[in-house]
Amino acid sequence: MRVLVIEDDKETAQFLAKSLKESGHAVDLAGDGEAGLDMGRGALHDVLIIDRMLPRLDGLSVIKTLRSEGVRTPVLVLSALGDVDDRVKGLRAGGDDYLTKPYAYSELLARIEALARRAVPEEQQTRYVVGDLVLDRLSHRVTRGGEAIVLQPREYRLLEYLMKNAGQVVTRTMLLEHVWDYHFDPQTNVIDVHVSRLRSKIDKTFEKPLLHTVRGAGYMIRDGAV
Amino acid sequence: MTELPRRVSGLLASSAFRLAAISAAAFVLLASGLVAIVFWQANAVLTDQVVATLSAEADALRTEGRSGRAGLLDAVAARSRPEGPGLYVLVDSTGRKLAGNLSRVPPEVLSDASGGVFRYRPITVNSSAPVPPERLAVAMQIVMPDGDRLVVGRDIEDQRRYADGVKRLVIAGFVALSLIGIGVAAMISRLVLKRIEAINSAARQVMAGDFARRVPVDGSGDELDGLAVNLNAMLERIVELMAGMREVSDNIAHDLKTPLNRLRNRVEGALRHDDAVAHKEALERTIEEADELIRTFNALLLIARLEASTIDDSATDVDLGKLVAGVVELYAPVAEEAGARLNFAPMTGPALLLRANGQLLQQAVANLVDNAIKYATLTRPGAASCDTTAGSSGVIRVALAVENGEALITVADSGPGIPAADRERALRRFVRLDASRTQPGTGLGLSLVAAVARLHGGRVVLSDTIDGTDMPETKMPETKMPGTKTPGTKMPGLTVRLALPGTLVRGAAASGAQPETATVGTVPLDADSTTDVRNANLISVAGARGVGHNARV
């Protein structure tokens, strides 16, 4: 995956570049809005990471310009502003996801990977399969090894989101945002409890665990060890 | 006295004085203009009259003169009374005086046929009398056919004196009016200045740091008094905000510096050892603590921002039933995990819509439920021995209702409660009552709820709920302790009421309240009255006086 980071703070940019490279991604850096816009125009990247406050041209303007020019590359907006309104503004300008500083690198990585995947036009999948776990999106039925698993509606949506992102790390915040549509910090680790309930239903009686906890990052569903 | 010039110059520089002085000057100018016009007009009328009289007399004498010099001489002699207003002189063609009470033909009259103004000295009868002063007169001359010239005149000295008197009077009046105007202007400005100076000196003292200082209010209710009242209100608000700022900085100092220091100590301690495992562990703990700090910081910022913003720009119609059910659903497994039971009785009937910021309200309710779960499973310090199964005694009840046109979100827990004296404090930023110091969390939960309430124009009130009257629509579990004989553990419950005035609309769709709650299959909805809910804390969120609301619940 090739990532363009438009960030004026050199240290942050270097940290992101180094970390992303270590995660196996190619990284281009732009130090201001205009340079970033020029590089983004080529649509050579899988994901753009754009800081909101940039010299010469602010982040939201960069996104708006790119979108008006037909560049559809997914954008993750980074911002020190964390208000409800700021988030909405960021998404309205054409951003695909919004991350408030300070953030954990694992959160950022999980989010850009999810963004990059989303951009690939997947044919409307009616079934998610991970190992012997099958989720049928038409009948809303979940089976493992042919055995039916009864899930609460929310558990079903949780599993659906995890399986949609199978093999990828999904953070707690991402789950809270996508499964519950909550955009606040619930303080207690409510997500952990929900995931552990789901795990007890899909993994407990089976030998091979599918739902894994990725330490310091979140969760991942995949066939095999993390 | 150096004080006087300073005060005078201060007076002259004041806008009150300038205003009064300008209006006085305008009045004086207008008045003198009027007087001048009247005077000029009167003078013109009088002059016209004199001229008309002279012409008439001249005509009469010209007629006399037609019959010959003798008749004219008689007529002139008859009319020429000494010291009378009529002045006459008849001279022959050589300029010799023939008759009349003027000594000579005044030269001013000769040049102009229509007459002229001149000065003369009246001929006195008694030659020994002192020479009389010159007087003013007008005259015109008539040339007779035989070459004699007759000058007919009229004394206007009295008229002139009268006019002079009027002129002097006008000038004196002008001066007097000006002086009075200046005096009144000075008086007005001094009165106004005194009050403005009082405001100024108060402002200066406040600027110098005396924030308790207030502008004197005299209760007259006039503009200056209103200004003083408003300034005082403004000062009050500033003081409030400053106190808030100070509180925040104090709290930051305490609740952020302490963990920062802890974090620093840990890193320092880890650096002293050359152990890779210890380093890794220290780093991981550091990240955790940094996250906790960020969380605290974010909550603090959010509260500060809420206190300075208005709801208008972010408000939407929020379905309260859905919102509460959603939060309950999110926390139900958490409660269960913690050994508490989370009960929610969803409202039946049409949806309850409130003009609100949904996300903040979600967060507020989540904070309440989160808190409730934390405390429901807490046992009171002195009562620990009485609880045989500490993990299963907690009960949390959540209810949504409309009471007196107010939406009421109620969250009750069976925790130890908050003593009455501490309730006010519990809503403040960063306050964690001693009992909860050891619990995780930023200590900002309730104060965030309070801030959200304020944003929605409401308030949060904590109070006793031992009788359960604050839980409408849901029967409170028995608050007495069945079968328990531990009087020492008896504590009143707690109600936190959040009142939100706003537009409350009852949606027409009756099914609206149901969908989310339907998923709460795992939540035991039946009230178990046998549960030992000994110290039920009620936290109710009351909202919104219904403006367009008329239906009963």
Q: Would you write up a description of this structure?
A:
The complex is a heterodimer of chains A (226) and B (553). Chain A is α/β, with parallel strands linked by helices. Chain A has two domains: 2-119, Response regulator (Rossmann fold, 3-Layer(aba) Sandwich); 127-221, Winged helix-like DNA-binding domain superfamily/Winged helix DNA-binding domain (Arc Repressor Mutant, subunit A), CATH 1.10.10. Chain A is built from eight helices and twelve strands. In chain A, the strands form three sheets. Chain A has a five-stranded parallel sheet with strand order 2-1-3-4-5, sandwiched between helices. In chain A, α2 packs parallel to α3 and α6 (153-164) crosses α7 (172-180). Chain A is elongated and about 60 Å long. The two termini of chain A are 20 Å apart. The mean pLDDT of chain A is 86. Chain B is of the alpha+beta class and 553 residues long. Chain B folds into three domains: 1-213, no CATH class; 229-308, Helix Hairpins, CATH 1.10.287; 313-543, Histidine kinase-like ATPase, C-terminal domain (Heat Shock Protein 90). Chain B is built from twelve helices and 14 strands. Chain B has a six-stranded mixed sheet with strand order 7-9-10-14-12-11. Chain B has a five-stranded antiparallel sheet with strand order 2-1-5-4-3. A three-stranded antiparallel sheet of chain B has the order 6-8-13. In chain B, β4 and β5 (149-155) form a beta hairpin. In chain B, α2 (15-66) runs antiparallel to α5, α6 runs antiparallel to α7 (276-307) and α8 (320-338) runs parallel beside α9. The longest helix of chain B is centred in the first third of the chain and has 52 residues, at 15-66. The two termini of chain B are 80 Å apart. Classes of the chains: A alpha/beta (226), B alpha+beta (553).
